[in-house]
Amino acid sequence: MESKLKTEAEKEAAQDQMKALEQKAVDVQSEMQRLEDLDAIRTMNKRPVLLLLLWLLLLLLFS
Predict the structure, then answer these.
(1) Which stretches are annotated as coiled coil (predicted)?
(2) Surface-to-core class of residue 9, CB atoms within 10 Å of its CB (0-12 exposed, 13-18 middle, 19+ buried)
(3) What are the residue ranges spanned by the domains of the chain?
(4) pLDDT tens digits for 16-58?
(5) pLDDT at 2
(6) HEC profile for the chain?
């Protein structure tokens, strides 16, 4: 009886570890997606600045 309870406890512990590992994988994937989204936003925000600088440079060159 005692060994049966011990085996059940070991199974539950193994399942909990597996669930924790699965949750960590989901969390890591979510964090990676957030970083990719942030990088995309930063890239979009740089474009207008570069165009403005190019426009100012051309304005100065042809003035």
Answers:
(1) 4-38
(2) exposed
(3) 1-63
(4) 999 999 999 999 999 999 999 999 999 888 888 888 889 999 9
(5) 67
(6) CHHHHHHHHHHHHHHHHHHHHHHHHHHHHHHHHHHHHHHHHHHHHHHHHHHHHHHHHHHHHCC
